[in-house]
Specification:
CATH class of the largest domain in chain A: Mainly Alpha
Number of helices of chain A: 10
Distance between the termini of chain A: 52 Å
Structural class of chain A: mainly alpha
Number of strands of chain A: 0
Number of domains of chain A: 2
Order of helices and strands of chain A: HHHHHHHHHH
Oligomer: homodimer
Strand content of chain A: under 5%
Radius of gyration of chain A: 19 Å
Largest sheet of chain A: none
Largest interface: A-B, 40 and 40 residues
CATH superfamily of the largest domain in chain A: Tetracycline Repressor, domain 2
CATH architecture of the largest domain in chain A: Orthogonal Bundle
Chain lengths: 191, 191
């Protein structure tokens, strides 16, 4: 079914054009017109793929999520020891290279745009961290009497706070500092 | 010098109108025209106080900082024991009531708007946390061999991550959960 593949590919290409426009001009520049121009499509052609701006935005947001998820799957499938794997998983949620920085900057713009729409803004990170902590706890790798609910909120806030700070100031915290902070934190959780 | 007082008061009133417009319509609605309307001033009168939109934005941002600082000063001057005072100081940086929620929501909009302008976005919170940790460490209240630099980044990220999450979803983390997370974190730092 080559036509369907093309259709999906074209949609992804439009989503990537959307990210580019957002990175260059912020949400206020991310009009259907500007996105069509960036994607080198006519307005009519773009409307063929996405009938509304909201629909396009949601598709573009989802694609950011999928990219992050793919990076995480690679780490989960690796044969790192549990503590290192956990730290490495958390590092996938931080803007440590150009690709992930762009992802997270776009995400922050979307967050601002969709403020108040809790369901749409759920990036699945809290759940991912909670699942990981539960898994480690089940395997008796974490300290006794750990409160998974509190530790999930704490680690989730820590990770997003680091990401936010690095997006606000591209020089700090450095990758090395973010790694040290995560390592320190994870060490206080592990036995 | 009643004239100067009036001038400053009027500027503050305009800054407050700016917040209101941002809260209602986001940065894209925060035009000089809309702000003048909200402040019930003519465009000419508004221009008398702020010649450019940037100048107005910066004044409004600064006023948010000052409001937070005033809340912190009250806590510092209180006679709470050190650990409770420290937790209470950190809680001033979280959107736990309507006033602080509005402050932080406005701040997040400004952050997005001024992304890339590191100096402008420095809210002084990192420095405040670092100073507090140094003070506590000097008074031998923190665990031995604590790394102030790492702990500053860690706590700064934790606080801003909690604030970001609560602004993204006004139902969670709850005040009670944020209090528990901070208490847990601070307890791991204290002797």
């Amino acid at each position: 079914m080559p036509k369907i593949v093309d259709h999906e590919k074209r949609k992804e290409m439009i989503a990537e054009a959307t990210w580019q426009v957002i990175l260059k001009q912020g949400m206020k520049g991310a009009t259907v017109r500007n996105i069509a121009k960036e994607a080198q499509l006519s307005l009519g052609a773009l409307r063929h793929y996405f009938s509304t701006q909201e629909e396009l935005y949601m598709f573009a947001m989802n694609l950011v999520k999928e990219r992050v998820l793919k990076r995480i799957e690679k780490i989960v499938a690796s044969d790192l020891p549990p503590k290192e794997k956990f730290i490495s998983f958390l590092e996938q949620l931080l803007p440590m290279d150009e690709e992930s920085r762009a992802d997270m900057e776009v995400w922050l713009h979307f967050t601002n745009y969709f403020l108040g729409n809790e369901e749409l803004l759920d990036d699945g990170i809290r759940e991912g961290i909670e699942n990981a902590l539960c898994f480690l706890d089940c395997h008796q790798l974490l300290k006794d009497n750990i409160d998974i609910e509190i530790e999930t909120e704490r680690l989730y806030a820590l990770v997003d706070g680091l990401a936010l700070h690095r997006i606000m100031d591209k020089n700090r915290p450095t990758n090395e500092m973010m790694h040290q902070v995560l390592t320190k934190h994870v060490e206080t959780l592990f036995k």
